[in-house]
Amino acid sequence: MSSQPERLLAVCVDDFGLHDGVNQAVFDLLALRRISAVSCLVDGPSWASGAARLREAIGAPDQAVADVGLHLNFTETLDVQAQSACPSQPLGALIRACYLRRLDVARLDAEIERQWGRFEAVWGKAPDFIDGHQHAHQLPQIRDALLQVLRRRYPAGQAGPRPWVRQCRSPGWQAVLAGISVSDTVKAAIIATLGASVMGRGAATLGLRHSERLLGVYPFDADAQAYLLRWQAWLKLVRARGDLLMCHPSVAMQTAPPWPDVIAASRQMEHAVLTGDVFARQLTDARVRIVRLSALV
Question: pTM of the entire structure?
């Protein structure tokens, strides 16, 4: 038996509500206890229809097996009418607009409140955490608006539960030493430079918790063996201080959405890997246990 101490990791599925295939993958993985967070696209066509089953799969609040959060979206048009006041932009265009300060922070604030309100209307309570589709929540201006919303909703001294915020810090070159490719490491570093540390400091200033490093970045290459090797490396990197690993699994869709899911093949590959016995053995061998981030940070 290994003498290595057990380490704890939060594993989050992004994009719940995008379509029924993502939802079913979440239910499968919750049943196996292989994920501990679910991030929800509230304008997705399968959000409201999947929420009741998600609540059942999560369990009672005092025994919940996963956190449920708001996946803020500024890059996908999922509900044209609902998003009309703040239309989505492709990620590259959104990054340029944010860094050139071309967006209206008041409009972004209102859009975050709209998505938050839609979450609460279906889920019945505030999200356990906040993050962003394609990490847009950490971009300048969007980040400013999000911090405004959080400051307003969770004033200093207010009692009660508070959400944690995803911080997209990279593990840096330690990832290469663990076996992650240089290209994957660079991609993770680029994501981090778009605002990870500033987002983390902003959350901490408000007295909110945040995740530490973000694992799980790769180019969606739909290669199961390569994905397992990446997991082997990510598990080597885990530190029991609030590391978070994102994934994007799905099964085949029963009802196709009106827009293409461009990473559908990789989503289905991830589901096959994450529900498999080899992955279970990886977790055991690495002595990593999947837990809720709210129990860690």
Answer: 0.96
